[in-house]
Amino acid sequence: MPAGIDFSAPVELRCILRPQSEMRRMIPTVIFTTLFVGLVVAVIVGLMAPNTPAIWLTAAIVVGLATGGLMYGRIHARLARTYGDRQRLTVSPYGLIRTDGTIRTDMPWAGMNRIEVRNSALPGRRANVRQAGAAGVGANAVLDVARTKIAAGIVGRATISPLPGANRAQLKVHDRLSGGRSNLRGGGSHLAEQGLIFPGEFEENWAQGVVGAYLRHYRPDIRFPA
Question: For residue 29, what pLDDT is reported?
Fold first, then answer.
């Protein structure tokens, strides 16, 4: 546990996730999209030039690789911008405030009820992937696998609010995940009874770090995972 913490003062933690490590989980999606686009191009060009396989084969390879490369580059750029500039966790006497450029999650200490192991992949990442070129290619199953990342999260009542300039596609994902109870795209806030914050995004060993220290100070009744 960090020494000399002033529990009356807020502490801002930067995101420790790195695009390179996160992108490794997206490789299956990129490969799937590359092959799918290449197949579609091969069929279309093959119908126009059935007697020249070199043409449709070359077109399939070039377009498929270009699409996969563009998709990879755009997702990497978004993740770099989110992790480097936007994703922050403020730990204070009030509780936890997490921002990521899309939404703000306010979770007071009194609203927290447990720590639970969940899938910590960002809900908005599917929207990022679709915008980068995976939309309409039937890659949902691949995306689900790529988005799976199990970690301990703090669960409790939280207020979810859209941030200025947030991507509407990402807000739509959050609205859908709320079961229609939120209208983030319309600028409205939403009280989530099962709000979720993953402190491991901001501290590698958060249970022995700043978040853990504040949690033990303000909510000593909450049990940490083994």
Answer: 79
